[in-house]
């Protein structure tokens, strides 16, 4: 599975609290629901369309789940941000120092998991993986286009 793009078009600005929201969470399964709730609340504050917010929350959930389940991280960073008035960016940073690409997973029809990155690929406008300047591990990111309010 290859990302729509291979390098980050723009990392989130960690110093812009009105346009970004960061969560530092323990790398535990319960943190995934905390990331969903927090991201949903911030996107509601930004008055983003409900359908887009639902897609973004799903993407945050999938990226956070991958970081929690498939890396040696003790903590993860989840970020969402309005990088332009028409583009939302989601990032999950982990501490997987040795991985520079995501492993291909092909779940069978009876498998309960393994479809997260397929969902990311289908829903996101673009997505990819970069080395995190915040953790030294991976930063897996996705973007969504914000529909016009007209």
Overall outline: globular
Percentage of residues assigned to helices: 25-40%
Q: Could you name the ranges where pLDDT drops below 50 across 5 or more consecutive residues?
A: 1-9
* Number of helical elements: 3
Distance between the termini: 35 Å
- Summarize the biggest pleated sheet: 5 strands, antiparallel
Strand coverage percent? 25-35%
Q: Structural class, from secondary structure content?
A: alpha+beta
Order of helices and strands: EHHEEHEE
Oligomer: single chain
- How would you state the average pLDDT, rounded? 82
Strand order of the largest sheet: 1-2-3-5-4
Rg is 14 Å
Give me the count of strands.
Answer: 5
Verbal overview:
The N terminus is likely disordered. The longest helix is centred in the middle third of the chain and has 21 residues. 31% of the residues lie in helices and 25% in strands. β4 and β5 form a beta hairpin. The chain is globular and about 40 Å long. With 150 residues, the chain is an alpha+beta fold. α1 runs antiparallel to α2 and α2 runs antiparallel to α3.
């Amino acid at each position: 599975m290859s990302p729509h793009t291979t390098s980050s078009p723009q990392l989130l600005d960690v110093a812009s609290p009105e346009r970004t929201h960061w969560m530092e969470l323990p790398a535990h399964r319960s943190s995934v629901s905390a990331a969903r709730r927090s991201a949903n609340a911030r996107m509601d504050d930004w008055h983003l369309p409900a359908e887009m917010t639902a897609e973004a929350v799903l993407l945050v959930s999938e990226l956070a789940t991958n970081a929690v389940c498939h890396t040696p991280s003790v903590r993860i960073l989840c970020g969402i941000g309005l990088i332009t008035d028409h583009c939302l960016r989601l990032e999950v940073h982990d501490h997987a120092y040795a991985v520079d690409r995501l492993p291909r997973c092909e779940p069978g029809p009876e498998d309960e998991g393994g479809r997260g990155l397929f969902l990311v690929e289908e829903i996101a406008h673009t997505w990819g993986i970069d080395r995190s300047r915040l953790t030294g591990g991976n930063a897996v990111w996705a973007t969504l286009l914000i529909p016009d309010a007209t």
